[in-house]
Every structure is written in structure tokens, then in C-alpha cells.
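Let us work through a complete example step by step.
Step 1: write down the sequence.
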Amino acid sequence: MSKKIFLIVFCLFFLTDLSPAICHARNKVDAFLEYLGNPYLKYYPNNNKIYARNVWDMVGFRGKLYLGAGNSSNYGPSPNAGPVPIIAYAPSTNSFTTVFVTSEEQVDAFYVIENQLLVPGHDPRESWEYGNLYLSTDGVNWQKKRTIPNAVHTYCLCFYDNKLFAGLGTPKGASVAVSENMGDSWQTSLFQQIGRFYDLPVVAGRLYAVGAIQDNAARLAFEAQTGRQIDEIFEYGEKGIFSTRRDITSRELFPDTALAKNRVYKIIKSITFKNKAIYLGCYIHNDHQYIPFGLYIADSLSPQHIAVQKIILPDNTLPWDTFLSQGYIYVLLNRPLPDGTTEVSVLRSNDLKRWNELFYFSAPTMVRSFALLKGFFYFSLGCEVADPSSWKPEDLSPETGEIFRLDGHPFSNIPGGFQVDSAK
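Step 2: predict the structure and record it as C-alpha cells.
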């Protein structure tokens, strides 16, 4: 396959009430995608097991690409699909290898912290007395630390103030665990809140714990009926104490967004960049999976100045993944087309104001996650069901779990870009 990419260049001009005229080049790259394989096919071969081939996250580390799949939902399809292996792809040998088998129903997220690759134990297939943390310095040799008290679910990690923080779901509710020795031991804080902590964003130098978020009117009505206070967001203070922030509601976190009133929301995949946080706003779906509805940038969440902006994306386009690499934020977009296929595109920005669309391509189904390794982009095809209690076999794309690669070098110096305006 030729490594030269012919760039199809044209300008798109349009005017909306939110943005000025926009002109940018679009680069269609379907012919240059390289199929690498479907590494989880042997573990989840067919029928309802197809859903567990969803690659929830992928990351480049020590010259290899690491993948995580499975399904920790208690509902269909393929509920509680562990134990899940971590699979690595080596570009040097063009091969996939199972490097470690976790004790989890799902490998949901990777973190590179202190030169180590970390995987939080999303849903252990063990007792609820402790939760797990997996660590590797080289991607080959792995250590399992079963030390997080009462962690039925460890959803997220954050390295802040030289400490490792973990957002948990426990039998008694949402909790944050804090370790000063990279997971050897933990101190936990239990919050009197129904639910779990799904993300630990850092905004303007401050750490927040964000759980399941309801429509504010629905939350107040529930509190009035039950007499129980439901706090959704907490701020970590200088004395090491988390304090509730009831002034931050769904309206502040997801501005200029028409949210479904009967749903519960969360933020995921937050990244700290230039003292701000960029994150995905999502509906909680299929137990604790997600359906995204928007992309947001938080400049400040201080009580005196809450400043969050929504990034206005093209119509019917949803952000599914994002990562930071060498001073750029990358965002993966999916736009379902009438013929059942998906237009997939990648945005890039180095200031969160002006964005380049690097390229786009057509896929037979959604693309759930992506990564960049040594100048090459990697993409994983996925699937989702509208109703986990009433799904059909045709809802599960047989291409789920397929991995594709694209040489990203021709796009490294694309000039200009286009302005994706934030709603005011």
C-alpha cells in the first residue's frame, strides 16, 4: 500500500448564528487505512459476545499500542465479560500479543503516570473487600495491587499534588481513594451520595470529583421527597478535605445543551491542558457505559467564577474519544450517515480555540477509540445498543473490535485550520 496520501482539498463556507464563515480543507483517507486485525475475536467470537470486543480505550506506551475491551455491565449484550486480557500491538512485528490477563469484567481506561502504565480495576471478579490497580513500567511485566478498600468499581485515576487519586463506586456509595505510594496503600473518603465517581478533572489547578449528575430540578425534587441530600460534585481543598459544590450543576457543566430530562449524566476522559480541562459530556447508558452528547472546556469552576464552554461541532456529530500528545489535543468524531455507515473525523488543537480537522473517512460502524503512536493513528471499530434489555443481533456490528492504522505524518504540518466556536 502506498504511503503517499493524495489530499482532496476544498473549502467549505457556511454561516451560522454561532460562528463566522469557516473555510477548511478536508482530506479523505479511506484508501489509505490499513487493516491490522481483530485481536479480541478469539476471546469474544460471535453472537452477543461481539459487544465485549468494543475497545474502550487504547494508548501508545514504550513503542507498542495497548488495548482494553470486555463489558462490565450487568445487562446485555455479553454482560460481565471477564476476565479481560490486555492486548498489545507491536508495529515492529505487525503482531498482537496478550501481555496480561486482568481479573476484571472490563478494561476501560489506561493512564500513563510517573512513567508507568496504569489500569484501574473497573469491575473485579473477586470479593468487594478490595479493588485492583494494575501497573507496568515496560508494558510486558505487570503488577496487580489489590489494595483499594471496598472498590467495587475504580473508574478513574488522577495524579495530583504528588498523590494518586482514584474515583470509586463502593457498596456504600461514591468514594475517593488517595495513595501516597502509587497504590501500595490508600486512604478513602466516603461521600453520602448515591452512585459513583466517574471522573477527577483538574481545572485551574483545583481537583474535583464528579459523580452521576441529574437534571437539577429532578435532583431537588428527589431530595424533597426523600429528605436525603444528593451531592454530585466535590472540590479537593488545601487541607486534604473534599467539600461539596452544589453550585455546580448540569447547567454549569453542560452549557448550551438540550439535555434529556429523564437521563443521568456524567463527564469522562477529562484532560488537563493549559490550566483548563476538556471533557466529554455523556448520558450514563447500559449500567455504567456511556453515550456522548457534547465536548466541553472548563476554564474555571471556582465559586466566584464558573466558566465552561461548549465546543460547537457539525450537526449530528458526536465526540467519542480524546487524548493529549506533544502539545496537541486530539478529538475523535463520529457522524452517522443515512446509509448506516459512519463518517469519522479527527480534530486537533494546540490552544483549544482554533481546531484543525486533519482528515476523515467512512466506516461501516462507529469508531469508539483511537490513539497516536510514532506518527501513526490507530482506530478501533465498535458498536452500541439503544436498549441493553431489548437488543437485536443486528445491533451488534460484526466489525466490532477491528483495528485500523493510518500514517499520520502527511498531516503533521497542516496549516491554518478552522475555528470551532464555543457557545457563549
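Step 3: interpret the result. DSSP finds two helices and 30 strands in the chain.
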